[in-house]
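re: the backbone from monday

yeah here it is again, tokenized this time
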């Protein structure tokens, strides 16, 4: 919204700036979706942070693409589960940790010959394992926690409402 008392020229410049900002946010959101999808297949590239960033970018630039992302059968559950504070399923947690150690272990054993690089990979795998281990598992929350807020917003800046049925 242009400032109160703005001239036509200032209003047009403000609208052009908003259009440029929306376009850049849309491009950034699309790039984050691409990186998030790659992260589904590459263990060291995170999926959820990129998809969350894409959701924020789309929420500020394109309501249509935000809804598509949140309801998408391949990506939407990452965002909805994080937004609603639910975490991940036990199966996804176990598979993520297993795949992480299989890929990093095989890379360390068969691809790398440098001990310092192997040590760095080991530290990364350990840190990611701890992070994944600390993510809540569906259905393990206490009733007191469930009585609290039912979703995490995108910072309160987007104005996009949650699709959660608990609101």
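seq for it, each position gets an aa:
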């Amino acid at each position: 919204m242009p400032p109160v008392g703005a001239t036509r020229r200032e209003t047009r410049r403000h609208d052009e700036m908003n259009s440029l900002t929306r376009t850049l946010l849309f491009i950034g959101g699309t790039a984050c979706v691409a990186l998030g999808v790659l992260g589904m297949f590459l263990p060291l590239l995170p999926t959820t942070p990129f998809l969350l960033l894409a959701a924020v970018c789309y929420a500020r630039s394109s309501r249509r693409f935000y809804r598509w992302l949140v309801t998408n059968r391949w990506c939407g559950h990452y965002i909805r589960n994080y937004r609603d504070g639910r975490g991940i399923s036990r199966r996804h947690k176990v598979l993520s940790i297993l795949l992480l150690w299989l890929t990093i272990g095989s890379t360390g054993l068969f691809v790398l010959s440098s001990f310092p690089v192997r040590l760095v990979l080991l530290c990364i795998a350990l840190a990611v394992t701890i992070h994944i281990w600390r993510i809540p598992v569906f259905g393990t929350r206490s009733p007191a926690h469930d009585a609290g807020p039912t979703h995490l917003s995108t910072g309160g800046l987007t104005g996009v409402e949650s699709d959660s049925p608990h609101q």
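The radius of gyration is 20 Å. Confidence is low (pLDDT under 50) at residues 142-167.
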